[in-house]
Amino acid sequence: MEKSIIFFDLDGTLLNDNKQVNDSTREAVAALKEQGHIVAIATGRAPFLFEHIRKELNIDTYVSYNGSYVVLEGEVVFTNPLNDKALEQLTNLALQHDHAVVYMDHEDMRANVPDSERVTESIGTLQIGTLPTHDPLYYKDRFIYQSLLFCAEGEEKPYETLFGTFDFIRWHPFSLDVLPAGGSKFKGIGKITEKLGIPLERQYAFGDALNDLEMLQGIPNSVAMGNGLPEAKEAAKWVTTSNNEDGIAQGLKLAGLL
User: Fold this and answer.
1) Which residues belong to the signal peptide in this entry (predicted)?
2) Each residue of 131-176: pLDDT tens digit?
3) Which of 177, 185, 250, 255 could form a disulfide with 42 if both were Cys (CB 3.0 to 4.6 A apart)?
4) What is the CATH number of the domain that holds 89?
């Protein structure tokens, strides 16, 4: 069998609802590697928020921040930080409206306010065991790959109108991801597959959510999780069982890889 590369989303896909790796998933990843395939991660998470998973599964190739920070075999091959001037303007507007902002680079995350119930509640749902500390100037003199804007649904409209250089994606009733406009996991994946010279027909992708759609549509050998959104299932070639029901192992069988 020729070498293929398989990209897995994390939350709702490679991880079960307890944010852990199922035994069947761990065994499936090991089997792929034994066959000579490359196993990679494609996530909206920051690199420092899934380092423990990379170590657990021995994965050193990944697309993080929805395509803004891309690593191949431990080496950074592509970055796409937020526009610093626009981020400063967004911060000033957020302060006027009492909306908290969190700044995230490849190593850490910091908040522009010392404490916020919205920050605590929304980030708490990720079960990552940590919250951003306070540093209102963290975005200065460093590359920020993603920010989080904390506002209720509907309150993001002025930001969307003013900041065309950013994409705003809501992931919690109180929080939005702020990303470079036009970026995606699929574009980040391309930075890896181009360097490796792996053609599209030997690329595979697993996902469940809205930020996976371009990846699931762009890679013909795509698998949506049974727990995934209807849009993800419609975009994918195959639909497997849920992330709690051995969905990775079953999906790899559907794709003919196991």
Assistant:
1) none
2) 999 999 999 989 999 999 999 999 999 999 999 999 998 888 999 9
3) 185
4) 3.30.1240.10
Q: How many domains does the chain have?
A: 2
CB 123 within 8 A of CB 146: no
Q: Which residues have CB under 8 Å from 68's CB, separation 6+?
A: 79, 80, 81, 145, 146, 179, 180, 183, 188
Same domain, 67 and 191: yes
Residue 32 main-chain phi, psi, to 5 deg: -60, -45
Residue type, 57: L
pLDDT reading at 70 higher than 80: yes
Domain, as residue range, for 153: 84-180
Angle between helices 247-254 and 23-34 (to 10 degrees): 40
% of the chain surpassing 70 pLDDT: 100
Structure tokens at 75: 């080496």
Among candidate residues 177, 252, 258, 193, the one with its CA nearest the CA of residue 222:
252
**CB atoms closer than 10 angstroms to residue 125:** 11
Give the mean pLDDT of 73-82.
Answer: 98
Average pLDDT (174-203) is 96
Q: Residue for token digits 């494609």?
A: 42
Residues 203/7, Cβ–Cβ less than 8 Å: yes
Tokens of 62: 């990944």
Statement to judge: residues 134 and 246 lie in one domain: no
Mean pLDDT of 221-236: 97
Structural element, H or E, at residue 5: strand 5-8
Structural domain ending residue among the three candidates 180, 207, 228? 180
Residues belonging to the active site: 9
The CB-side HSE value for 73 (13 A sphere, CA atoms) comes to 6
pTM confidence score: 0.92
Q: Do 65 and 104 share a domain, yes or no?
A: no
